[in-house]
Write a structure and sequence with these properties.
Layout (H helix, E strand, L loop, with lengths): L1 E6 L4 E8 L3 E9 L1 H4 L7 H23 L8 E7 L3 H18 L3 E5 H7 L13 E6 L4 E8 L2 E7 L5 H11 L6 H9 L24 H18 L3 H22 L2 H29 L4 E5 L6 H12 L9 E2 L12 H8 L1
Helix pairs in contact: 2-3, 4-11, 5-6, 5-7, 5-9, 6-9, 7-8, 9-10
The chain binds 5'-O-[(R)-(carboxyoxy)(hydroxy)phosphoryl]adenosine and zinc ion.
């Protein structure tokens, strides 16, 4: 069965055709990220206007490049929620119109469930239930126990920021641009994860919820203190107090050494991944799962993958349990193939 997937929940316009929920025939993505960079985050109006221009040409390209005609498309799947409302509407209206015009069944898919099904893409092995899944991205941070297809139990979630959002904010403070995850993790490779002591929130044994706003503030205060120490001019000191984040981003670019930035990134990344991995592994042990999965944009983070695997290796209950994450980095971040896979299953 061939499913045409459409995903427009944030800045990207994504179209894919997936066979039987696993074989990716084509996976196209057009991002408007460059147009948002000067604002330090996504501007919904700009995103939606770009998506209107991109969506039809992308669908045409997908059909042309796979050599498929509409007769070979069995169903259409589209992200329904959550996301930027104006962006979601572009995808939903396009999918609804095509479904009516071409007489195809339409499936509306939850974006977070889409991320979860990214682990089925190009997967040769049979996936065993139950699974403990950590879905971490810029907009969501949830731990789910998956009993069977379309049967999820929420085990924990963030009480404030998502992990990816924290990566993005720290990047902004350091003047590293958007999105923050890839650049922070790259810099962290050269840094010392023990250089700064950042807090691990909600550290109690049986608490499976997450919180990253305290960590974000701790990074901000640390940055403020080292930036202040480095500044000699009184005027600049006052501007730090007055404009906080914005001024910090400007000042830290000039005053922080490359090594200090790398150490801040490494220590921040270690704190985020420590909380995520500890809770994921504890939950996986408690519910005696057969598999552990990572999904969402932050699952592209190599340090997170590594630390989860290390913790599982030293756990009696989990040492023989497989850890899966999406087969390609392109399936970790937002894409339409995962939406088509979720629709199939
Ligand atoms: O899944 P996604 O594309 O969009 C949402 O549904 O939110 O995730 C984007 C998020 C951003 O916050 C980005 O900074 C983060 O994923 N991200 C990473 C990495 N690559 C992307 N975070 C940490 N390490 C990475 N390598
Ligand atoms: Zn997403």
């Amino acid at each position: 069965m061939n499913i045409l997937g459409i995903e427009t929940s944030c800045d990207e316009t994504a179209v894919a055709i997936v066979q039987d929920g696993k074989t990716v025939l084509i996976n196209l993505i057009a991002s408007s990220i460059a147009k948002h960079q000067k604002y330090g985050g996504i501007v919904p109006e700009i995103a939606a206007r770009d998506q209107i221009k991109q969506i039809i040409p992308l669908i045409r390209t997908a059909l042309q490049e796979t050599g498929l005609n509409w007769g070979k498309i069995d169903k259409i799947a589209v992200t329904e929620k959550p996301g930027l409302i104006s962006s979601l509407l572009v995808g939903i209206n396009t999918a609804q119109t095509l479904a009516w015009l071409k007489q195809k069944p339409l499936l509306k898919i939850d974006h977070v469930k889409g991320h979860i099904y990214a682990n089925w893409l190009e997967q040769q092995n049979k996936i065993q239930f139950p699974i403990m899944i950590l879905t971490v991205s810029g907009g969501h941070n949830e731990m789910m126990l998956m009993h069977a297809h379309d049967n999820f139990e929420l085990i924990g979630e963030t009480l404030d920021d998502a992990a990816g959002e924290a990566f993005d904010k720290v990047a902004k403070m350091l003047g590293l641009g958007y999105p923050g995850g890839p650049v922070v993790s790259k810099l962290a490779e050269k840094g010392n994860p023990q250089a700064f002591k950042f807090p691990r929130s909600l550290n109690q044994n049986d608490n499976f919820n997450f919180s990253f706003s305290g960590l974000k503030t701790a990074v901000l205060y640390t940055l403020r203190d080292i930036t202040k120490q480095a500044l000699s001019s009184r005027q600049l000191k006052q501007s730090v107090q007055k404009y906080e984040q914005h001024a910090l981003a400007c000042c830290s670019q000039q005053t922080l050494s490359k090594q200090t930035k790398a150490d801040l990134c490494a220590s921040f990344q270690a704190a985020v991944c420590d909380s995520l991995s500890k809770k994921l592994v504890k939950a996986a042990e408690k519910y005696a799962v057969k598999e552990v999965h990572l999904a969402g944009g932050v699952s592209a983070n190599f340090y997170l993958r590594q630390i989860v695997q290390e913790r599982m290796n030293v756990s009696e209950a989990l040492k023989n349990v497989p850890l899966r994450y999406p087969k390609k980095i392109a399936y970790c971040t937002d894409n339409a193939a995962m939406i088509a896979a979720a629709a199939f299953f």
